[in-house]
Amino acid sequence: MNNHALLSASSSHRWLTCPPLPRLESYFENKTSEAAHEGTLAHAVAENKLKKALGMTHKTISVSDSDMDEYTDDYVTYILEQLDLIKQSTKDPIVLIEQRLDFSDYVSEGFGTGDCVIVSDKKIHIIDFKYGRGVDVSAVDNPQMKLYALGALKLYDALYDMEEVVMTIFQPRKYNVSTDTMSTKKLMGWAETELKEKAELAFEGKGVIEYGPWCQFSNCGVVLRARYDHHKKLDRFELKSPHLLTDAELEEVLHHVDDLAKWANEVKAYATEVAIKSGKSWNGFKLVASRTVRKFTDEEKVAQIAKANGYDNIYKQSLLSMTDLQKLMGKTTFEELFKTLIVKPTGAAVLVPVSDKRRAIDVTQAKDEFMEEK
Question: Which of 180, 204, 228 is where one domain is finished?
């Protein structure tokens, strides 16, 4: 059985926006990051802790990461709290953990896995555990959560008269708990119209790819023509000097800067990998050995020789980083011991799009700090 759907729930935002992407991505390698491995472990730990708390058959997974231990405890506590609230109106709610959810009635071969699904008399509550700490993930109008909801309704709508679905994203490392509620009628309306149409296009590899943030998170994003065409618009500016551009033109360039820099590095990494693996020669470029620095082959022997020759002061001592100290002691102990000694300085002024959730800073303050640095 294939464990990975072409049109997965987790990638639904991409294929709903750019239907041809899944078929294109199937030709490219899916590289698993260290963060993904960490997330997989955190999910396994959370699953077994929750099963234990509910008296289900479970495994015991020991982790050396005290933060992961505490964050997964937080997840279990949250679910138990939600379960207690639901029991006030439903005597025996059903709790499903790591449940396969089939939404293939609307998306060809579509399925996913729900971290926790609580079924009550008139409501289904889907809780998704996200261990990432990159950006806050919102449950509001989240296509992944809506697909999970469709899968859960397929299992239980015939047995219960479901009126609404509650969808929650629990993201402990970002202190983010986001919840959205939708009527089953509205959910089914979306499924029968927008979802079905886009899913058919995506399964067949048809449709149009437009530039957007999704290009950066696709495994074929480095060679997407939509990304190239988007940045190619800058050609007309020639970028000779910012003093030759109008304010409006500078603003247009600013909209490109972040992804343009990221894409440029991705293109170079991709071309290097192809040259190494297949021997491809890129016109005007060659492979060389990178610059390196000298290092000792045996540091213990170096220390022995240095001391034997009268050099005793050869080590330096420094405090562990805050992150390492917290891992050593655990989040709770760390905060208890050092809460009066921790300060978070104001960050330097940076220019970001207005869609960024951070609060705008005082312009006068930013100007003074900038002038001090200069």
Answer: 204
Residue 276, pLDDT > 80, answer yes
Name the maximum alpha-carbon separation found in the chain: 84
- Containing structural domain, residue 87: 12-204
**Residue that has been written with the tokens 């303050």 in this structure:** 365
User: Per-residue DSSP letters for 70-124?
Assistant: HHHHHHHHHHHHHHHHHTTT-SS-EEEEEEEEE-TTTSTT-EEEEEEEEE-SSEE
* Cα end-to-end distance, the chain, whole Å: 61
Residues 36 and 180 in one domain: yes
pTM strictly above 0.90: no
- Asked whether the beta carbons of 127 and 79 are under 8 A apart, the reply is yes
Domain boundary among 187, 204, 221: 204
CB atoms within 10 A of CB 326: 18
d(CA 51, CA 59): 9
Read off the tokens for 55. Answer: 């008296």
Assess if residue 252 is contained within a domain: no
pLDDT tens for 130-156 read 998 888 899 999 999 999 999 999 998
